[in-house]
Q: What sequence folds into this?
């Protein structure tokens, strides 16, 4: 039994339990037949895993979760960088878009009234130029 169970991983064991039961039943029936014993059924119910193996499996699972988290983070960072590149293209093609973004950032910075907004004169010029464009 140990050999049959030892050939599969714990994940496979939980998925293939019935198949392993059947394989063990056939193997045991073959070995016991010469003694006149019939094996009717075999069920794997409770497998005790040594503490050292449990610790090793836990570390492996933790490493896998950390790897998955890093891959997900890298994918998200790649998507965000692509969005920034696209935004840069839009800002480059539409000068008014950059002015609107600057105005939005100014608004977000000052909307709670808890901060101070220091605007360079070029930012103020953008407000004036935008106002003239809207008036037309």
A:
């Amino acid at each position: 039994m140990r050999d049959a169970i030892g050939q599969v991983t714990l994940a496979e064991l939980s998925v293939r339990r019935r198949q392993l039961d059947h394989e063990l039943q056939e193997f045991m029936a073959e070995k016991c037949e010469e003694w006149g014993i019939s094996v009717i059924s075999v069920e794997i119910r409770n497998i005790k895993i040594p503490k050292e193996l449990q610790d090793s499996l836990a570390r492996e699972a933790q490493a896998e979760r950390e790897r998955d988290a890093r891959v997900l983070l890298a994918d998200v960072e790649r998507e965000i960088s692509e969005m920034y590149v696209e935004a840069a293209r839009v800002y480059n093609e539409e000068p008014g878009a950059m002015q609107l973004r600057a105005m939005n950032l100014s608004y977000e910075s000052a909307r709670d009234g808890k901060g101070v907004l220091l605007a360079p004169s070029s930012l103020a010029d953008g407000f004036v130029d935008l106002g003239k464009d809207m008036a037309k």
Notes: The two ends are 87 Å apart (CA to CA). Helices lie at 2-6, 10-15, 17-33, 51-93, 95-110, 121-135.
